[in-house]
Amino acid sequence: MRITVKVGTSTLTHPSGHLNIRHVETLCKVLSDAKNAGHEIILVSSGAIGMGVGKLNLTCRPQDMPTKQAAAAVGQCELMYVYDKLFSEYNHTVAQILLTGEDLRDEARHRNFANTLQRLLELGALPIINENDSVATDEIGVGDNDTLSALVAVSVKADLLIVLTDIDGLYTADPRHEKNAVLIPEVRSITAEMLASAGGHGTALSTGGMATKLSAAKVCMEAGTDMIILNGARPNVLYDILDGKSTGTRFIGRKNT
User: Fold this and answer.
1) DSSP string of 36-91?
2) Which pLDDT score, from 0 to 100, does residue 208 have?
3) Residue among 13, 48, 29, 11 nearest 168 (CA)
4) Residue 189: helix, strand or coil by DSSP?
5) Between 137 and 173, where is the model more confident?
6) Which residues does 36 contact at the CB level (< 8 Å), separation at least 6?
7) Neighbours of 133 (CB within 10 A)
8) Average pLDDT for residues 13-40, to the nearest whole number?
């Protein structure tokens, strides 16, 4: 299968902004094993600003655009260094692609991106994609990496998008505040009630939340691509997906309905 995996800041870093070594090492090991099994893996990775916050010893995620971009510039270097080091241990070569919204909206630029990504996969590389936060602004940015991962998955005709986050999947209510909340194992249509109960923001160092994940799921489903939300604190759960087991919440693409 061709699988796009999106990993969020809450999985990659501690609340301090410093690297969560256990999560990242396990993630790279599992993805390397998936490649060894013959799957094509595309990683959409958040974390540049969060890691920049830690590297620059800032007390919180910056609010002004220049400081966000500065943190991203510092953090992206650290992020790719970690990925290159860990994937190299399993003999896999990584490639960095940084995108803005225009790279996906403009036909010629989108075609160049798709051609580059396809060639990287043919060469056996593992592409790692992030929004180009050091130059992106609200006008030219995608906005969040949940949306970016969905657009990438659809662009490259991925068989599946897996979104790793800080929760086990979509619940009937927020399980952190409602003890009777129940995990929804499968979604075939996104309702207004789901969107209303999704809430808004992610963690202090991230931009995502369940609302952006539902928006990403809508993009995938309309294009006929399945999407699964999993808990990134347990990267080994990816093996269950590869083995065809049901875990997390799967959003069913319309071609499968």
Assistant:
1) HTT-EEEEEE--HHHHHHHHTT-SS---SHHHHHHHHHHHHHHHHHHHHHHHHTTT
2) 47
3) 11
4) coil
5) 173
6) 90
7) 24
8) 91
Do the Cβ atoms of 238 and 33 come closer than 8 Å?
no
pLDDT surpassing 80 at residue 235: yes
**CB contact at 8 A, 17 and 209:** no
CB 100 within 8 A of CB 113: no
Beta bridge partners of 187: 251
Is pTM beyond 0.85? Reply is: yes
Number of Cβ atoms within 10 Å of the Cβ of 10: 25
Q: Is the pLDDT of residue 164 over 90?
A: yes
Alpha-carbon span 237 to 245, nearest angstrom: 10
The half-sphere exposure of 214 on its side-chain side, counting CA atoms within 13 A, is: 21
Which residues, 6+ apart, have CB-to-CB distance to 114 below 8 Å?
155, 156
Percent of the chain exceeding pLDDT 70 equals: 90
Residue pair 144/212 in contact by the 8 Å Cβ criterion: yes
Using alpha carbons only, how large is the chain's radius of gyration in Å?
17
Residue whose tokens read 């909206």? 105
pLDDT for 170-219, tens place per residue?
988 878 788 888 899 999 998 887 777 665 544 443 344 788 899 899 99
CA distance 223 to 160: 11
What is the amino acid identity at position 133?
A: D
Q: Which residues have C-beta within 8 Å of that of residue 44, sequence separation ≥ 6? A: 4, 5, 6, 7, 128, 129, 130, 145, 148, 149, 152
Which residues fall within 8 angstroms of residue 188, CB to CB, at 6 or more apart? Answer: 251, 252, 257
Nearest to 83 by CA among 152, 31, 38, 120: 31
